[in-house]
Amino acid sequence: MLDDFHPYIFKTTDGGAHWTSLVSGLPDDEYVFAVREDPNEPRLLFAGTKSSVYVSFDAGAHWQSLALNLPPVQVRDIAIDTRQGEVAIATHGRAFWILDNLALLEQLAHAPAPPAGGPALFAPQTAWLTHAYGRSEFAALIPGAGLNPPFGATVFFTIPSSYNGSTPVTLTFADANGNVIRSFSLHLRRPAPPRSPAEEMNETPQQRKQEELDRLTAILPGANSLQWDLRYPDATEVTGFRPPIAAGGLPDDVNGPVVTPGRYVVSLDYGGQILRAPFTVALDPRLTATPDDLAARLNLQLRIHATLDHLDQTINRVIAARDRLQVEVAAHRLSDQQAAGVIAALTNTIDDYVAMDIQSSEGSLLHETKLRSHLAYLAADIDLAYDRPTPAQYAVFQELQREAAAAERVLNDALGKVTSLL
């Protein structure tokens, strides 16, 4: 048998009295090391062979390659982790490899093929609230480094082959009570226009975030996926503000807060045809926070988020009013004498609440932190731990909330002066 490289997989349903060969689809020279059955879906099988790994969605009646980016290598053993939805393989000479999103394969084995010409939606794998997930931006710089699973819920869906971008498509995430948390409008993926190095260097944070959103929501006919970071929508950002880089500290951004553990529903709306799929968000089992702790965390973060959003919107109205005055002066519809004092006052008022002088990654070393950033830093501080906020965090928010209310009054008074001129 030493020169027999044929694959051999047999199945019995009567205690060994009769056996059925299950090798259809396996190459004739791929002898088999291991076969594993998914504990949750008996129709889903995995086989490790002398040079690759294979999957069957029909209990072994047919096999197909699952190699994806796996190079040719002996696959000696296979382990299935249904809790985290992963398939791990042990290779001979190329270390361990792990495939995420087992739930997608289970659904492909369990459900019939989606209707031809229509959209399809698959329930996401359980999404974990944990700091162990998430991909480092530096991992790509290390040759051969593996990537942790991305943080959040991965949604797989299929778009009809006739899609050309004219049909409206949205993905919406809601809680178990139907309250919408986040909705994404999807669009046809198109080649990005070329940009010069200078354009990339001078890109604003708002432009960069919009580009990230455009990439996230770009789709093509056929199979697609979207990675939801489990967050509520961003707060409004101040026009022209450049947040400094975190550099190991807290990020100065306007990200929405993360949801709490529970049941959620994702909906795919393709031109009015709506498909829904439930999924679960769960807390890292190594953490000890209670549901009440995490509800209190979300409640405070939403209050901070609303305060920051309202403040930034008001600041933006003042910025827009100042810019309009400058346009009126440039068009000679207002004189410098009429507008100069008001424009200077508006600029000073804006600068009282947001550090507009920051124009570099380390500008915060030169300019003091203002109210807008204090709110963002407090939200980021609470975001560090899946636990009930501390008394100090509540006290800081109460102080910042009072400052924000006073700032709103000052900013609105400033807007009133512009109205009297225009």
Structural notes for this entry:
This protein starts with 9 loop residues before the first strand and ends with a helix. Helix 4 packs antiparallel against helix 6, helix 5 (336-351) runs antiparallel to helix 7 and helix 6 (371-383) packs antiparallel against helix 7. The chain has 422 residues and is α+β, with helices and mostly antiparallel strands. The chain contains 7 helices and 18 strands.
End-to-end distance: 94 Å
Helix proportion: 25-40%
Number of helices: 7
Class derived from helix and strand content: alpha+beta
DSSP, total strands = 18
On the 0 to 100 scale, the average pLDDT is 92
The main β sheet shows up as: 6 strands, mixed
Quaternary structure annotation:
single chain
Can you tag this structure with a few keywords?
422 residues, alpha+beta, 18 strands, 30% helix
Write the layout of secondary structure elements.
Elements: E1 10-11, E2 20-21, E3 32-37, E4 45-49, E5 53-56, E6 64-65, E7 75-81, E8 86-91, E9 96-99, H1 102-110, E10 120-121, E11 127-129, E12 153-159, E13 169-175, E14 180-188, H2 197-201, H3 205-216, E15 218-219, E16 222-228, E17 262-270, E18 273-283, H4 291-330, H5 336-351, H6 371-383, H7 391-421
Parallel strand pairs: 11-18, 14-15
Antiparallel strand pairs: 1-2, 3-4, 4-5, 5-6, 7-8, 8-9, 10-12, 12-16, 13-14, 13-17, 17-18
